[in-house]
């Protein structure tokens, strides 16, 4: 048995297809094969969020725990795919404006995550801090909501205070 | 991670057939636990049968007013489903308190049920562990066990089951639908996981190749309240130190129906049957809750560093039942 | 020349901000190279012993595997004087997790599988890894970290303590703590003949370069180290770490470029950690809270490979008036991973102990803890007798108390309640010394009106690139956008390490000097830069190398409010406030982020981060980010930061003190003191996890 498969994906709108080692994670495929190094490897085990990318629109996932072979046909958006030409995505701009990072290593994951978090709240997804009796419909992006929703992205530099401010600005 | 073959069958029968012929193969759900363990060398399947895209991706009402949840439904999808939020708050809350949105977006119901313990020795192939390599010993008993079991453990293993979702499902009397070459069978959630005894390597009562296809919830008890609460070392993105899921129905001040399940206390979601029995027909008061839960937890056998779990679980359960009782009395939904 | 408004002091956005939010910033493992191969470490599974055999046959079966390097077959490295980079040189294992072999393969997948298939056999020897305050073998080191003497005695502590009206005698403990920068230690190395290029993640590539040159016995000029963006370090990248030596070694062995990013769960063992400390503090005071006797005795551990002694008792030498003082350090040399720098080594754990004890003393005297500190303000630095170059602790305390609403609080413990939550608040002082190290810089004026400044600074997230550009622009008297500052490369003029909160001062000074000089030259040339440009060099070997007649420290005051859940024992922070006095703040935007970042890490130290050294294996149990809990977003509330601008002429031309570390100092004590106020419980061992609270309530 040879342990390889052919996969085809779209990465930031561009098709990418190749025969890959079945063991290759989406993160390693992006970084080592597709030359897309925005997504970072902070832990490789789903424990930090630095590898967060968006699947098929705005479903945020940890690319390090997904086998690329299982994603045949998927549409992947990374931090590189968010800006509109030279115009930064509003979340990117807000991170700049609020100094939402220091070393910047967690930032690509934080930004992808924030884009999805805003969409989830608008789509009415509750979080564990949403009061259970909240009526259906968009969830108010309070600081507590944003903190909980952004908790899958660790930042050792401790930029959370500014990240929350940045996300709040866009979510409003 | 060892090399493996990858298959993505279109239907359950093919999936089952593929694994029936592969004694060291495994099903792949979202991969958030299996891929993690494969990277660590703890799991080394030579075949992955991807079941994450099987057509078990719906949440539907059953004829009797219950809910049928496909095994491939993502944890996040289930958590935010309107029927789940409305009728089974305990389940929605349990899911939302687990992991992170990114992980819940990948994790499936089937995979969540079968995720393995977070015991640090189990995860390190450089160390002995009876669960990973039977007969090598259990260093956790003398070593790091602050997170590990106080109930139902054995001298061979003190691991805990880390799932939040499973605790809620235990409290909801869920049934697990399983397919295999021998035809389908239905397993009560509370019989799915097993205590370690002298075979800690076997987490569940499933046989090799059995495929979880769905989880079924009985209809909600009219007027019952339910909730989930989890204590942890950080405010989010952390496994439970202890958790409790409960369903309570009060009639005229008396407990009419009650289900309590604990998480992170044992190798399985721990249904507090002793407490439930003691409470039936009793006044729905803090005093009777406290009594009953103490009874339940009298069976605890803590180790050096995890004794705190007993008062922790007790306080959480008693305060939750008290709150649910108050909500029932107050009539707020 | 017209005078422009100064840009130092302005909240300039990070120069590399756009690169960081678009994914364009390249870190050590992000550089594409033709023919790149990947390495994966094999680590020791025993705490002490000798390797007797390595079986790599299974690993080498995969044709994608290029080599399994061990002490037996790897090219032998020369001795660079640093045991941390003396990799694969000997069969001896000094601690669990030491790297004993390295698999190199065409792909990451193959390298990881190969590493997993290598079988190493050991002659295991008994190990000694348990630190207690009374264990045998504790010794007095010659000196502790940062060159302080291990012991200092002033006056007669014993007699003064015995005669004191009010005494506090308490032991505080901090478990091992792990730096865990989000970017794992990584390097990509490629040889071209005898010339080596590495893309490395470090806090100072000047030293990495000289170390690599020594290890491989090549000319420093032939070693290129590129570290333009570094994903944090917090001290763990302050010295060269094994990954860079291994990547270069492997690249040499296989004749191809090699990338090695350490797996997260191997980092704690080989990149340093904050050593655990057991600290006994005794305070003797009169009824009005005036301290007469102060003892701070630290017991800690180091490894058999190096001696690193966490200088936890050192800040007690200079914080408060204390006529009779005893400050000591005792160390055990154990078979454990080597401890090293972690954000504010010494001050951070030490001030947790001292500032907790101060809170205990305030309770014992029935005094307000802010007032207690003010009463013990020393006229000169107690240890050396030197004057402080500036000290605004009292102003920070007063300003903080005012902003926090401190005086509205009911001082009695365990009276604040909000349903099942107990609410309390606490205060602690912060301090951090002023460090400055000699560095070099070059400045170049082009005839096109542009300027380039070169200094081997490292921006690990501090904002160094930005603030150096501000310093240069002001010294040159030109707008910011005409100045380009190059940093993060070993071939640039030598810069000191990004550590000890010394970066801005150390690098900014020669930048300031070179740019001031260059401005003069441009002016001398009639304001016109000739074709070919003008070029100057500067260094601060003289200015920064010597001593000073002043005691120089930054100070601060931290206030925190917590809630303690009586059902679960969970402690959550409701708000934090820090007021700091740290010289001139050169960039309020990045400075604020630094202070907040330090306080956030202090929050983690107080409440979430804990590590257990397994006595059976000599290994840390919490090695990954799922079990070692750095604070998550949900743990961190609004954190409010202010500062008192100091005009201190005894520092450097910019008038700045370091700001990268002071934020973590005192944060844990403020939180622990708040927990005491909330519950009446004194928690003297960190972290304050739910179990501690539950068992104490
Ligand atoms: C950092 C981190 C934090 C986490 N925190 C939490 C937490 O707080 N609470 C919590 O509950 N969980 C937590 N998790 C665990 C997470 O919930 C599980 O990893 C996830 O639910 C597993 O689902 P999956 O679909 O990805 O399973 P997989 O990894 O795909 O599979 C897990 C197991 O189930 C088997 N399997 C999968 N599907 C089927 C099926 N249909 N039939 C039979 N067998 C099947 C696989 O063979 C495998 O053995 C965390 C995980 C990580 C990495
Ligand atoms: S508790 Fe169970 S899983 Fe953990 S070391 Fe012991 S046997 Fe292994
Ligand atoms: S790298 Fe994927 S979660 Fe950390
Ligand atoms: S900015 Fe450095 S880890 Fe978040």
TrEMBL record, chain A:
UniProt KW keywords: Iron, Metal-binding, Oxidoreductase
Residues annotated as domain 2Fe-2S ferredoxin-type: 5-82
Transmembrane listed as a keyword: no
Pfam families: Fer2, Fer2_2
CDD domains membership: fer2 (cd00207)
Presence of the UniProt keyword Oxidoreductase in the record: yes
Name the record gives this protein: 2Fe-2S iron-sulfur cluster binding domain-containing protein
Organism: Streptantibioticus parmotrematis
Lineage of producing organism: Bacteria, Bacillati, Actinomycetota, Actinomycetes, Kitasatosporales
TrEMBL record, chain B:
Oxidoreductase keyword on record: yes
PROSITE patterns listed in its UniProt record: FAD_PCMH
InterPro entries to which the protein is assigned, alphabetical: CO_DH_flav_C, CO_DH_flav_C_dom_sf, Diverse_Substr_Oxidored, FAD-bd_PCMH, FAD-bd_PCMH-like_sf, FAD-bd_PCMH_sub1, FAD-bd_PCMH_sub2, Mopterin_DH_FAD-bd
Keywords in alphabetical order: Oxidoreductase
All copies of domain FAD-binding PCMH-type, residue ranges: 1-222
Domain of life from the UniProt record: Bacteria
Protein name listed in UniProt: Xanthine dehydrogenase family protein subunit M
Source organism: Streptantibioticus parmotrematis
Automatic annotation (TrEMBL), chain C:
Name the record gives this protein: Xanthine dehydrogenase family protein molybdopterin-binding subunit
InterPro entries from the UniProt entry: Ald_Oxase/Xan_DH_a/b, Ald_Oxase/Xan_DH_a/b_sf, Ald_Oxase/xanthine_DH-like, AldOxase/xan_DH_MoCoBD1, AldOxase/xan_DH_MoCoBD2, AldOxase/xan_DH_Mopterin-bd_sf
Taxonomic superkingdom: Bacteria
Stored Pfam families: Ald_Xan_dh_C, MoCoBD_1, MoCoBD_2
SUPFAM superfamilies: CO dehydrogenase molybdoprotein N-domain-like (SSF54665), Molybdenum cofactor-binding domain (SSF56003)
Keywords: Molybdenum, Oxidoreductase
Organism from which the protein derives: Streptantibioticus parmotrematis
Keyword Magnesium among record annotations: no
Aldehyde oxidase/xanthine dehydrogenase a/b hammerhead domain ranges (all copies): 22-126
Keyword Oxidoreductase in annotation: yes
